[in-house]
Amino acid sequence: MKKVLPIIFLIISAAIGVAAGKFLRPEHVPEVAETSEEEGQDDHTQHLNPPNQTPRDPNEVVDYVKLNNQFVVPIVEEERVASLIVLSLSIETPDGRQEEILRKEPKLRDSFLQVLFTHANLGGFDGEFTRADKLNSLRRLLLEVAQRDVGKDAAYDVLILEIARQDY
Asked: Disulfide-capable partner of 35 in 28, 39, 56, 86 (CB 3.0 to 4.6 Å)?
């Protein structure tokens, strides 16, 4: 009996571990398809460079307008602030359009905060919030509102310069 009891505990522990692993698995697990090395590299570069950027002339001179203040997004859990996300953003724009972006900065900040709060409420800043897929979807949403507010020809991309989370 002394030799059987540890084996029973081992089997029960293994079953509990497997059940916990299946129960706690992340909801969005990307499926990996079998591809050749060349196709895998294309998928990887496409994953890092989202395809939603506005097409432009590669020889065009662009400038980057850093928005003056950081964005602070509270993460609320059980009706209390559990952590804060702090971001610094910049907008890629054609040369000569910087003043237009800065004139519309209050509108851009409001729109960006709406996107950031929604992203936070949907769990976008939970867990591994710096994963490329999460940041690319956030950039895409920020770019959409930037192009809505200042025009597609004035905002080519939104860059996340800094991002940090402070847990309480």
From this structure: 39
Is 43 in contact with 35 (CB distance < 8 Å)? yes
Q: What is the pTM assigned to this prediction?
A: 0.66
- What residues contact residue 138 under an 8 Å CB cut-off, 6+ apart? 115, 116, 119, 124, 160
Q: Residues 54, 60, 61, 65: what is their CA dihedral angle, to the nearest 10 degrees? A: -10
Q: 61-167 — its CATH code? A: 3.30.479
pLDDT tens-digit series, residues 134-165: 999 999 999 999 999 999 999 999 999 999 99
Burial of 16 (0-12, 13-18, 19+ CB in 10 A): exposed
CA distance 111 to 17: 44
CA dist 143 and 152 (Å) reads 9
Domain spans in the chain, listed from the N-terminal domain onward:
61-167
